C-alpha cells in the first residue's frame, strides 16, 4: 500500500533546533503534516487525541524520556500499532537493544542526514 | 613518662597498700603509704594533664591545618567567581550557537522556498544567503575560546580540590539517597548521553543489532 504523503507525523524532541531540522528534512522528502512535542508526556497526550502515521522521537528528554514514551505507546491499545523511530545520540549497544525489546521500529543515531532518515522511514512505513 | 608506665606505677602502689598489714600499722607507715600513693597519683594526674594537653595541641594543630587548607582551596573564589564565570561562559556559548543556528537555518529555509524563475535574482539570493551562513560560522571561534575558559576554570577547581582531599586524607562519603535514586533512574532508563569521540555504536552496527533475532541478542549478554 502506498504511503499517504499527507499522513500526520509527530516529532518529539526537547531541542527546538532539532525539531526544526527534522521538520525541514521531512519537508524535503515530501512530508509537511508534522506536529511537534517537547517530551514524552506531551507527545502521548497528542497521540491520545490524534492518530499519527509515524512518531520520530528523541530518547533523552524530561520529564518523560523517549524510551518511556515508547513503552507507554506500546502498552496502550489505541497507540500500540503506531510506527516509532528513535532518533538519538544514545549510541550504546544496551540502548539499541532496550529500544528493540520495547518495540521500536527503527533507530537512528545522531548526527544523521536526510538520506538516513528517508531510508529508515521507508523501512518502517514503506516506499514513498 | 608514658601513660602506660604511669598506670603501672599506680597499680603497683595500690597493690602495695593492699598487701600491707593494716591491723597493726604505725602512723609513720600510714604516712609513708599515703605519701607513696599521693606521689603516684600526682604523677598519674600530671601525666593525664600532659597527655590531654598534648591531645588538645594536636587537635588545635589539625584545626589550623584544616583552616589553612580550606583557605588554599579558596572556596569563596570558586563560589563567587570561578563557577559563576564558567556558567556565564556556557550560557553565552549556548546563546552564540543558537544565534548562529537560527541564521544558518533561516537562510537555508528561505532558499528552499525561493523562486527560481529569474536565475540572476536567484543567484544573487543564493550568494547573499551563503555569505550570511559563512559569517554565522564565526561562532566556532568564539565557542572554542569560551570552552577553553570553562575548561581552565574546571582544571583550576580540580587541582585545588585534589590538593585538599590529598592533604586532609579525605575519603568520599556514600552518595546521598537523592544521588543514588538519580543514578538508578538513569541506569533504568539507559540515559547515557552522547559518547565522546562519536557514536559508540555507529548506524551500520545499529542496523545489524536491529536485524538480529532475540536469541542472538540474548547471546550478546551471555
Structure description:
The complex is a heterodimer of chains A (128) and B (222). Chain A is α/β, with parallel strands linked by helices. Chain A has one domain (29-125): 3-Layer(aba) Sandwich (Rossmann fold). Chain A is 43% helix and 16% strand. Chain A is built from five helices and five strands, in the order E-H-E-H-E-H-E-H-E-H. In chain A, helix 2 (40-49) packs parallel to helix 3. The longest helix of chain A has 13 residues, at 16-28. In chain A, 41% of the residues are buried. Chain B has two domains: 3-71; 75-171. The model of chain B has no long low-confidence stretch (mean pLDDT 84). Chain B has helices spanning 3-19, 27-73, 75-112, 119-136, 139-168, 177-188, 203-211, 214-220. The chains are: A alpha/beta (128), B mainly alpha (222). The interface between A and B is medium-sized, with 31 and 24 residues.
Task: Name its key features.
heterodimer, A: alpha/beta, Rossmann fold, five-stranded parallel beta sheet, 5 helices, 16% strand, globular, B: 222 residues, mainly alpha, 2 domains
Topology:
The complex is a heterodimer of chains A (128) and B (222).
Chain A: E1 9-12, H1 16-28, E2 34-37, H2 40-49, E3 54-57, H3 66-75, E4 84-88, H4 93-102, E5 106-109, H5 114-125
Parallel strand pairs in A: 1-2, 1-3, 3-4, 4-5
Chain B: H1 3-19, H2 27-73, H3 75-112, H4 119-136, H5 139-168, H6 177-188, H7 203-211, H8 214-220
Number of strands of chain A: 5
The multimeric state of the shown protein is heterodimer
Kindly identify the CATH topology of chain A: Rossmann fold
Q: What is the total tally of β strands of chain B?
A: 0
From the helix content, strand content and strand pairing of chain A, which structural class follows? alpha/beta
- Within CATH, the superfamily of chain A carries the name Response regulator
Q: Whole-Å distance between the termini of chain B? A: 66 Å
User: Largest chain-chain contact?
Assistant: A-B, 31 and 24 residues
Low-confidence stretches of chain A: none
Q: Report the CATH C-level class of chain A.
A: Alpha Beta
Computed CA radius of gyration of chain B, to the nearest angstrom: 39 Å
In angstroms, what separates the terminal alpha carbons of chain A? 10 Å
Give the proportion of residues in helices of chain A: 40-55%
Mean pLDDT of chain B: 84
**Biggest sheet of chain A, open or closed, and with what strands and sense?**
5 strands, parallel
Q: Give average pLDDT of chain A, whole number.
A: 94
Relative helix content of chain B: over 70%
The amount of beta strand of chain B, in percent, is: under 5%
Strand order of the largest sheet of chain A: 2-1-3-4-5
Amino acid at each position: 500500500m502506498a504511503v499517504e504523503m499527507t499522513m500526520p507525523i509527530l516529532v518529539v524532541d526537547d531541542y527546538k533546533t532539532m525539531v526544526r531540522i527534522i521538520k525541514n528534512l521531512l519537508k524535503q522528502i515530501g512530508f509537511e503534516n508534522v506536529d511537534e512535542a517537547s517530551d514524552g508526556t506531551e507527545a502521548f497526550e497528542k497521540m491520545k487525541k490524534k492518530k499519527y502515521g509515524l512518531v520520530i522521537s528523541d530518547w533523552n528528554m524530561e520529564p518523560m524520556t523517549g524510551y518511556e514514551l515508547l513503552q507507554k505507546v506500546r502498552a496502550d491499545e489505541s497507540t500500540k500499532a503506531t510506527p516509532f523511530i528513535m532518533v538519538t545520540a544514545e549510541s550504546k549497544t544496551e540502548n539499541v537493544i532496550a529500544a528493540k525489546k520495547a518495540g521500536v521500529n527503527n533507530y537512528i543515531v545522531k548526527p544523521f542526514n536526510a538520506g538516513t532518515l528517508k531510508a529508515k522511514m521507508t523501512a518502517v512505513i514503506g516506499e514513498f | 613518662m608514658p601513660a602506660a608506665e604511669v598506670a603501672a606505677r599506680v597499680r603497683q602502689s595500690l597493690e602495695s597498700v593492699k598487701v600491707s598489714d593494716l591491723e597493726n600499722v604505725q602512723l609513720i607507715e600510714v604516712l609513708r603509704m599515703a605519701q607513696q600513693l599521693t606521689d603516684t597519683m600526682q604523677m598519674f594526674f600530671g601525666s593525664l594533664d600532659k597527655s590531654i594537653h598534648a591531645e588538645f595541641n594536636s587537635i588545635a594543630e589539625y584545626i589550623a591545618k584544616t583552616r589553612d587548607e580550606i583557605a588554599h582551596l579558596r572556596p569563596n573564589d570558586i563560589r563567587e567567581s570561578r563557577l559563576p564565570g564558567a556558567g556565564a561562559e556556557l550560557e553565552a556559548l549556548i546563546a552564540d550557537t543558537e544565534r548562529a543556528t537560527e541564521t544558518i537555518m533561516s537562510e537555508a529555509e528561505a532558499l528552499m522556498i525561493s523562486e527560481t524563475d529569474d536565475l540572476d535574482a536567484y543567484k544573487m539570493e543564493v550568494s547573499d544567503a551563503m555569505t550570511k551562513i559563512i559569517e554565522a560560522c564565526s561562532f566556532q571561534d568564539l565557542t572554542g575560546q569560551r570552552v577553553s575558559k570553562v575548561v581552565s576554570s574546571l582544571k583550576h577547581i580540580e587541582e585545588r580540590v585534589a590538593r585538599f582531599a590529598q592533604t586532609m586524607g579525605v575519603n568520599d562519603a556514600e552518595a546521598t539517597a537523592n544521588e543514588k535514586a538519580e543514578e538508578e533512574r538513569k541506569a533504568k532508563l539507559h540515559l547515557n548521553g552522547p559518547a565522546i569521540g562519536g557514536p559508540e555504536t555507529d548506524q551500520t552496527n545499529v542496523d545489524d543489532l536491529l536485524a538480529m533475532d532475540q536469541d542472538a541478542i540474548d547471546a550478546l549478554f551471555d
